[in-house]
Design brief:
By secondary structure, this protein is an all-alpha fold. It has 6 helices and no strands. It starts with a helix and ends with a helix.
């Protein structure tokens, strides 16, 4: 009786694994890897979530490109300073004042990114009507709770 039950359980597990592999390998390509047309876009996401019309969508796209350009420069500066910071690991004795200076610069760049993002969302809020502002506030609070993706 126990051998029969064990064989049945193994057979069910084997069949379920084969079905799972079949779905994975022979399922639709666009669901697994995403097609080029459906890539995530912050402009499309915000337009959908908040309900922008075409004019607001274009304004948001301009605002997004502006803040993204500013922040990209800050992120490049953070990255180069982080590289400089870790290059000092092999130095003996450790240059504490230099390490502190680099870390302070990095913190200043992070502060500027936060301020850029804050001003960006203030400008976005200005192009929204009253009901859209409520939706925007909800989206911003979700983004703030989510944390940093990079």
């Amino acid at each position: 009786m126990q051998n029969k039950t064990l064989i049945i359980v193994i057979a069910v597990l084997l069949i379920s694994n084969l079905v799972l592999l079949g779905v994975y390998f022979f399922g639709k390509e666009d669901k697994r890897k995403g097609s080029g047309k459906n890539e995530w876009s912050p402009v499309e996401y915000m337009a959908k979530e908040i309900g922008f019309d075409s004019t607001q969508k274009n304004q948001f796209r301009d605002l997004w490109e502006t803040v993204n350009k500013k922040n990209r420069e800050m992120y490049d500066s953070i990255r180069s300073n982080r590289e400089a910071l870790y290059r000092n690991m092999k130095l003996e004795p450790q240059p504490d004042s230099l390490i502190e200076e680099i870390a302070t610069k990095m913190a200043g760049y992070e502060k500027q990114v936060s301020l850029n993002n804050y001003q960006h969302f203030r400008r976005v809020r200005a192009i929204c009507n009253d009901t859209q502002q409520v939706k925007l506030d909800t989206v911003i609070s979700r983004l703030a709770k989510r944390g940093k993706r990079r």
